[in-house]
Amino acid sequence: MHGSHFGHRDLVSLPPASVGVTLLDHLRKPDQRMLAEESPIALVYDGSTVAVIMATPADLTDLALGFSLTEGIVRGASEIERLDIVPGADGIELRMWLAQASGRRLKARRRRMVGPTGCGLCGIES
Questions:
Q1: Helices (H), the chain
Q2: Between vectors from CA 124 to CA 120 and to CA 126, what angle results, nearest 5°?
Q3: Is residue 122 flagged as an active site residue?
């Protein structure tokens, strides 16, 4: 699918998905290695944050759809009427606007997720 349902592929200016890190090679000469970058990503539905996760800031359209399907928030891509990718100083928001029936189902089951991780971001409201 790769974002085709939403008419775009992550066209906003996002942080790089990988960064170069300087290190010394086996001969103790300067070298560089590419590492995956991570950013806090908030998944926001109809104006309410459902989850904040750490993820590589690439293929965010796929992340939004995959999370929505896996968590049972939507039953298909057509239930997400709009997706806005909004970069900010503290991370990225994936703002989704749901079809009415999906929005009602989500409000009825509003989940409180607490992530058992060391970073302290997973599960916060925003």
A1: 60-70, 100-109
A2: 120
A3: no
12, containing H or E segment: none
Pull the structure tokens for residue 100: 């009415």
* Nearest in space to 57 (alpha carbons), one of 79, 42, 74: 42
Which one from 48, 119, 125, 126 is the annotated catalytic residue? 119
pLDDT in tens, the chain (126 residues): 344 455 555 556 676 777 777 888 888 888 888 878 889 999 999 999 999 999 988 899 999 999 999 999 999 999 999 999 999 988 999 999 999 999 998 888 765 555 555 565 555 555
